[in-house]
Write a structure and sequence with these properties.
The protein is an alpha+beta fold. Helix content is 29%, strand content 28%. The chain has 2 domains: 52 residues, no CATH class; 96 residues, SH3 type barrels, CATH 2.30.30.
Length: 161
């Protein structure tokens, strides 16, 4: 016996019956019925998770004692200049930790040093002049995030302009 005739025999008593409709209820609209069978969104956010996992971060480099001493010497020279009333031009290579996963990013922030605060352990920089009144934007950089100080006399000064 083939599969089609076997099924016909098995369900012969109900095949010819009319479709059952519940009394007292109106039939569900095609739109509502389709919504029941719409794809289940169990994996919402999955694409974002994959993108975040694939996003690259740099590993933080911790300075050895000798580079840290050189960095402190440079900071002292800059601090002396600020005390004299100068605003020396510097570039700071800083590490910014990533908020979502391990590692972070390295960037260079250029500007004129306004203040070095040893208590708060920050450097306050004038980063650029903006607007018709030439208001100065400032950036506050944590000293422990500074990996390198680039001074114009040691580098090409065009890097800082």
């Amino acid at each position: 016996m083939n599969g089609q005739t076997e099924a016909a025999l098995r369900y012969a008593e109900i095949i010819g019956l009319p479709h059952h409709r519940a009394e007292g209820r109106k039939p569900m609209s095609i739109r509502d019925r389709a919504a029941q069978f719409a794809p289940f969104a169990a994996l919402s956010g999955y694409e974002e998770l994959i993108e975040e996992t694939a996003r690259m971060t740099d590993e933080e480099i911790f300075l050895a004692e000798d580079p840290r001493i050189d960095l402190d010497r440079q900071l002292l020279r800059i601090e002396e200049a600020v005390t004299r009333g100068d605003c020396p031009l510097v570039g700071l290579r800083v590490f910014t930790p990533d908020e979502k996963k391990g590692g972070g990013t390295y960037s260079t922030v250029a500007g004129r040093v306004k203040k070095i605060d040893r208590i708060q352990e920050t450097i306050l920089l004038y980063t650029e002049e903006t607007g018709p009144e030439k208001c100065r934007e400032t950036a506050e950089i944590r000293l422990d995030s500074v990996m390198e100080i680039l001074l114009p006399e040691e580098r090409n000064s065009e890097e800082f302009e």
